[in-house]
Structure formats: structure tokens, C-alpha cells
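Thread title: Can someone regenerate the structure for this chain?

I was given the following input by a collaborator and told the matching C-alpha cells would be attached. They weren't. Posting the sequence so someone can regenerate them.
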Amino acid sequence: MGAQFSKQVQRRKAISTEKKTLCDLYKTCGEDFPDCSYKPADRKNWMAGINPEKVHINKIVWPGTHDSATNKIGVPCITRPFAQCQKLSIYNQLVKGTRLVDIRVQEDRRVCHGVLTTYSVDVVINDVKKFLSETEKEIIILEIRTEFGHEDPADFDKYLVEQFGELLIHQDDNVFNKTISELLPKRIICVWKPRKSPQAKAGSPLWNSGHLKDNWIDTDLPSTKFESNLKNLSEQPPVTSRKYFYRVENTVTPQADNPILCVKPVTRRIHGYARLFITQCFSRGCADRLQVFSTDFIDEDFVDACVAVTYSRIEGKP
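Best answer:
Regenerated them for you:
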């Protein structure tokens, strides 16, 4: 009992120290980067607003959400706080400016997060279709994976192709060097990540897992995650010389050995430092590697920061 109490005291001290480390970094370095004050006039159509004829796919900083379809997961006020990473529906995330969504499914095509489940993936598909029907020049990355510990839904690749049809941008490494306008009217880069089923091949309407990479760090320590994200990002090739999307997640994760297990109070430890992270990318020389930037509980400022970096790139700034 005493040993467990002592361990918890040390954990709380470590968290407090790491929160202070990020706070001090913010006070010292601020959060200014090229065109950081830029804000899209219309977040729902922000890609259309920054000249689709000039915007190459590999130059976009894609605002993403982590565990995107968890707004109604579990039982409200009972299990939901332990798994909910977003409060908005997929449609409302896209309207707010999100351009990459992360969907986890189980055998029966229901969305899940670990052992907790929510609505059918059809809800996600319908939200995506609704958003695309209301816009003309927005491209999205739709990542769908089989959740850890679950089996792949049967014939799910065929189902996705049937649902999205001509909206799908086919797997082709040349896509990275194309502009938004060159890809239209196709609108979706759909990355399907099964656990056991065959991976999509080149030329397929779907993209395989090798085209969306990350270095997931499972920690609730904010400075550890922040610095690890920077280190892993710095080890990637620049966006102009790679043929895959690389994701950085500005999140921290509840840990079983800590009494705080709800997502929101834990991820809040890093949530407000997205602009600081971008600033550090510039100051440490790895801003040219930043491409997909994801968060829990996405907000307008996070979207604006990603769009600002994209705008700066197409304007030819560092």
C-alpha cells in the first residue's frame, strides 16, 4: 500500500514537472512562425480559399483528429469519458476544417475504441458524403483501421469502394506531387489498414498502411510526448522527397497506473501547445517535414495553425 502511494506521488511530481517544462518553453520561445496570424475566411472551404491550382498535396499541413468517431462512444457520464477523444461528429469536424480523420472499426463494422463501441461506420461514411456534397475543392484523408484486438470486417475493402466510388483518389505515388486541382473531381484518399486482410496494392482505389505512418508514443507525460514528436519528425525526409504521409499527434494518453483515466483532463496537458510545437519545428529545422498534425478535441485555432503553415508554404516562405 505504502509503495503504491509513493509511486503515485512520484508520478504526480513527474507530470507537474513536465507541465512546467512546456509552460516555460512557451514563455521563452512563444508561438510565432511564418504567417502564424493567417486565418482562413471559411474553414469549411479552406482548401478552396488558398488557390487549389497552386497547392500540392505534399505541401499541405493536414489538420487531423485522433480517434475521430468517438463523440458518442460508450455510455454518457459512465464509460464515455474514458474513451471520448472528440465531441464533434465527423461532419462537424470536417466543417470546422479537419482534413484527416482516424476511424477504428471492429468485425461488425461498428466504430470502436478499445472495448467500447459506438455507431456503425455507415454514420461516418454518410457524414463524409454530406460534407463533400456541400463543398467542391476540399480533399480529405480518410484513415480506417481495424482496432487492435479485433478481426477485420468481412470484405470491407470492397464495401468502401462501393460506398465512395468515383470520389476515391487511387493509390499512386505521383499524387504527392500533384495539386488539388489536378486531382479533382476525386476527393478522398482512403487509407484502409486491416490487421490480417491483404493490403491495397498500387493502382487500387484504396491506399495501404505504408502511405500513412507515425511513431505512436503511449504516455501521459506532455513534455516527453512533445520532445519525442519533434525527434521522430526530425528523422523523416522532407515532405517534398517522400511518398507517404507522416503524422504527428499532439496528444497524451491516460495510463493504467495513474488515477486520472479520463481522456480530456489528461490530453489537456499538451492540447494548448500545438502552435508552440509548430514554432519549435521551425526553430529546430524540421518544419519542412511537418505534414499531418492531429489532436484530440479539435478546435478552430488548431485548424488555423495548420492552414497558416500551408499558406506560408505555397507563398514560398521558409
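The two ends are 55 Å apart (CA to CA).
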